[in-house]
Design goal:
Order of helices and strands: EEEEEHEEEHHHH
Number of domains: 2
Distance between the termini: 53 Å
Largest sheet: 6 strands, antiparallel
Shape: elongated
Strand content: 25-35%
Length: 243
């Protein structure tokens, strides 16, 4: 990287200040829901950038002044652009550590927290993507169950369903409400089976049948609750209100 300048805020690194490498990256946050029968639903929650770190050496007659400028940036907590090569991130200078050897030779280490990176859409511009993801997860959750989401699917496919206040949007919200009523009914039905006391003094065959029914209902209950969470969030995304 010594041939490629790196800039943070108004500070453009030069000479030995330019790091040999920049450590960056991160992960994508996931909520993993393990369902009955070994099925798994992955809820994608968005990117989670790790800290960006690099190091170099301030040298020459301006080394002390350059160090002070870096430390002032750390003290300010200001969100600034960090750029190198084709990479660009909005960051806060979290950590700046300098080792003062002499007025003209001061090694340093920097760690930055990413506040924003170009090319990653904001929450307001990804309503459709969020709803599509939640609907996909809900459909995966109900696979093999008696819960149907065709009403919501049809309503969301309508033009302007994602635009708050439009007729299609109101109909989509209503479809979500109706679907939640159906799911709540399923939850109530399966909960009654799961919590019903076992009959005393019954034969082993009847007991086995009752236990099997309870286990099956427990799986269906988990499926319905999981689907309800996604459908409910679709409603909240559609109109910003609690459904």
């Amino acid at each position: 990287m010594r041939e490629s300048p790196i800039q943070i805020g108004s500070i453009s690194l030069q000479g030995f200040e330019i790091p040999q490498s920049v450590r960056f990256g991160g992960r994508h946050r996931l909520a993993v829901h393990n369902l009955s029968g070994g099925r798994r639903v992955l809820e994608r929650l968005g990117p989670d950038d790790g800290e960006i770190a690099f190091q170099g050496i301030f040298s020459g007659r301006n080394a002390e002044a350059r160090v002070r400028a870096f430390d002032d940036l750390r003290l300010s907590g200001e969100i600034v652009w960090l750029t190198w090569e084709t990479f660009k991130r909005r960051v806060v200078l979290k950590s700046f550590v300098a080792e003062y050897h002499s007025p003209w030779w001061i090694p340093y280490k920097v760690s930055c927290v990413v506040a924003y990176q170009s090319g990653v859409a904001s929450g307001n511009s990804t309503v459709t993507a969020l709803i599509s993801s939640d609907l996909g997860n809900a459909l995966a959750a109900i696979a093999g169950s008696a819960v149907a989401l065709t009403l919501v699917q049809s309503a969301l496919s309508s033009t302007n369903a994602m635009t708050t206040g439009t007729t299609n949007n109101v109909q989509a919200v209503a479809a979500v409400g109706t679907t939640l009523d159906v799911i709540n009914g399923q939850i109530g039905q399966q909960s009654a089976v799961v919590t019903a006391p076992l009959e005393p003094n019954v034969g082993s065959a009847s007991l086995c049948h009752n236990l099997t029914s309870m286990v099956s209902s427990a799986g269906l209950l988990a499926t319905a609750v999981n689907a309800k969470s996604y459908i409910g969030r679709i409603g909240r995304t559609l109109n910003g209100a609690r459904i």
